[in-house]
Write the structure tokens for this entry.
Amino acid sequence: MFETLKALNPDPILGLLAAYRQDTNARKVDLGVGVYKDEAGHTPILECVKQADLAHRAEETTKTYVGPAGDADFDAGIEALIFGADHSARRDQRLRTLQAPGGCGALRIAAELLNRAKAGAAIWVSDPTWANHVPLLGDAGLEIKIYPYYDGASQSLKADAMFAALEQIPAGDLVLLHGCCHNPCGVDLAPADWDRVAEIAIRRGFTPFVDLAYLGLGVGLDEDAYGVRKLASAVPELLVASSCSKNFGVYRERVGALSLLCATPSQADVVFGQAQNVARGVYSMPPNYGAALVGRILRDPVATKAWEAELGTMRDRINGLRTQLSDKFRQRLNSNRFDFIPAQRGMFSFLGLSKEQVQRLKAEYSIYMVDSSRINVAGVSQSNMDYVVDAVCAVL
Ligand code: LMR
């Protein structure tokens, strides 16, 4: 029966990893997949995670099942981190959080849940959005629609067009928003934009769905959570898919969560039960190890402080690189063409190159980035920055 299946091209993002690993050029640079890298180009295990691992191994007494909602400490810790421990939605018992296998797992459980609630519901995604949003949400049966977001000419938010589009979205549709560190463009909503989105969502009756994969890597933990907290205090229903891959550096352990805000506590119980039932039908229950470590860090104030410091180091490095990169481009080109880079947040920015220019960077310089010219800023270092800037200027 498998003869009916056709060979696929490599994944547009993950495929870059394999191509980069095979490249034998000593000067190769990986600006592709969104993983944090230190100055040496290494993706380190955070010290706080190593400590949590030691304690976990010493204290873990059983490997029995945990259940579809995952690790209860993790669920409580991540919910308090995202929304703030004292958020009214928590006090009102309208919020439930379920551990999921990574942010992708959370997105897919949400999509299946939404499709149960309203088969074929429309979900509006930003133009552009993370490539994997489309299969994660669409393959579950949701109808993907697109709202304007990024203006390539000004490298900033297409605010007027976006708000005009949101004003047309009917009640019962969903709107996917990037909580912070927009993937792929790095352009985030300002607090006033979030306030306006919340106001329109209430008035129009659409349901916001926030993808929060980079919490703490933009401006700071509280600043990056502004939008999600604002929505949670304004709208009756909200979904939040979060990931610990980047901010805890536990990528391969697949640690994420789905938080569900409902109109009433009893509704929240029903929806939470449905979400667990969806999980049961897909993978039964999430892997425990990574979430156990994150849960352990979040329930210990000393460990949490240590994590926040390490997170701050990652964030500062990325933001510092943004400034240095744009300075270097300005010097080389004697133009302000790349001045937008420091104004953007998180790992990603578009360089604004054509697909052909991106291919040349790969073929002639072994510099890897997504075809859209999305770069992972964290892949730049003091040792490769001149090489990257020179190569980009050469293909311009
Ligand atoms: C990315 O966008 O590079 C990351 O989120 C990794 C992935 O799974 O695509």
Notes: The chain is about 45% helix and 15% strand.
